Amino acid sequence: MAPFERILVPTDFGPSAECALRAALVLGERFESVITLAHVFDLPSAPFVYERQAAAETHVHAAERILGEAVSEARRQYRSVDSLLKAGVASEQIIAWVKDRSFDLVVMGTHGYRGLDRVLIGSVALKVIRSSTVPVMIVPGEKTPRGAC
After folding, report:
1. Which residue ranges form the domains of the chain, and what is each CATH number?
2. Is the pTM of this model over 0.90?
3. How far apart are alpha carbons 23 and 16 in whole angstroms?
4. Sign of the CA dihedral running 65, 70, 73, 79
5. Of the candidates 44, 35, 49, the residue with the CA atom closest to the CA atom of residue 5
6. Listed residue (81, 78, 97, 80) closest to 89, CA to CA
């Protein structure tokens, strides 16, 4: 039995998430794992219910399209890639997916915020590390030269 049968790769579609996906694809090939590329998004707010619903639908369709493109691109390198998409708080949803879907590993990028930025913005990666029941592999953030991953 492979040590990592199911690998979760949360993405915000940024450079550090791209590096995390590349690392996960290498692991997937090595262990013949299923890679799940996942995106959690916030629903936009609007003053009226009908505006909020229209904005949410537009947001969901855009997220589905971008995630679909990312999965198609990943499948060019490794065939066993699927996806998850949900609205919510990223760290909470990632932890829920780990528990509910029996992932063996989380591979995620980090923006590398330090000091006040990290306090004000928060760190999804840090929250996942603290709450995860499975190993979490962190791939360096955007400050890493683009070609380094």
Report:
1. 6-141 (3.40.50.620)
2. no
3. 11
4. negative
5. 35
6. 97
